Amino acid sequence: MVFIPGGTFRMGSAHHYAEEAPVHRVRVDGFRIDRRPVTNRQFAAFVAATGHVTTAEIAPDPRDYPGALAHMLYAGSLVFTPPEGPVDLRDWSQWWRYLKGADWRHPYGPGTSLDGLEDHPVVHVSFADAEAYAAWAGKALPTEAEHEYAARGGLEGAEYAWGEELMPGGRHMANIWQGAFPHENLAEDGYERTSPVGEFPPNGYGIFDLIGNVWEWTVDWYAPKHPAEAQKSCCTPENPRGAREEESYDPATPRIRIPRKVVKGGSHLCADNYCRRYRPAARHAHPVDTSMSHIGFRCVSREASQ
Questions:
Q1: What is the pLDDT of residue 233?
Q2: What would the pLDDT profile of 220-265 be if each residue is shown by its tens digit?
Q3: What is the C-alpha separation between 205 and 225, in angstroms, rounded?
Q4: pLDDT band at 305; cut points 50, 70, 90
Q5: What confidence tens digit (pLDDT) does each residue in 168-200 have?
Q6: What's the CATH code, domain 1-53+111-306?
Q7: pTM exceeds 0.70, yes or no
């Protein structure tokens, strides 16, 4: 883990997506954060020690999904499946498939395995799965403010975790999408999907993959914008930013009351023409019960001293 000294920083952005605004000053206490995302190898050790069964391996409870067809409620997870050509970017169902049997052991669906992916970040983990691992490891999940503060690497207000240019000197700094999403994956950075943790340069704090590769869970309930003013109390694990669980429900699905947490950092699917969220200020809402092939996590420890 890396120790991040406490401090005050300008959180958010006024130049991109509406949910990143307004920019506001936030105080964060000192904490330690994993240098790399949790890997398949590490998660396998946790499962072997505890017998944990992930959300993706359990059939959904029909009571949580009013109106859903019973034959559609099976154990599985969402896997990125690129279309053959350009599609409507407003319709995410064009590139995501809910596959029976997809889970952390089978990241691309039945018949796939972790062979060669041991040091890639674990994916297909729900918020509860990530939280269970953190507890087993004697750690916790980061708040949104902690994640953003760490991702900035000491650069106050910079566009990216490494400065103002996406590719300084033509160098790829994170595992993100090159080409026209979702059908054209040029993989100029060397990877079509996830990459081994630590393959790209660390930020100013010596931390890897806080941008790109996989989205990462935080403990914050999602709200569609930042508070205008934030006090130190907004960033404690008990009350990360002041948002309430009921505020996080998706208004597009009023009958399905699944709360959403903030995920941070973007992933290998973030592209210039879609989801430019490969920045520290970027944030996204994600249902706590839903796992995907591009969402993972890392842990923190809130110790006062280095």
A1: 47
A2: 999 988 877 655 445 555 555 557 777 787 777 777 788 999 999 9
A3: 27
A4: very low
A5: 999 999 999 999 999 999 999 999 999 999 999
A6: 3.90.1580.10
A7: yes
Dump the DSSP string for the chain. -EEE--EEEEES-SSS-GGGPSPEEEEE--EEE-SSPPBHHHHHHHHHHH----GGGSPPPGGGSTT--GGG--SEEEEE---SS---TT-GGGTEEEEET-BTTBTTSTT---TT-TTSBP-S--HHHHHHHHHHTT-BPPPHHHHHHHHHTT-TT-SBTTBS-SSGGG---S----SSTTT----TTS-SS---TT-S---TTS---SSSSSEEEEEEEP-SS--SS--GGGGSSSSSSS--GGGGS-TT-TT----EEEEES--TT-BTTB----STT-EEEEETT--BTTEE---EE--S--
Query: Range with the lowest mean pLDDT among 57-61, 84-88, 197-201?
Result: 57-61
Residue 138 to residue 283: CA distance in whole angstroms: 26
Query: What is the C-alpha to C-alpha distance for residues 170 and 160, in angstroms, rounded to an integer?
Result: 15
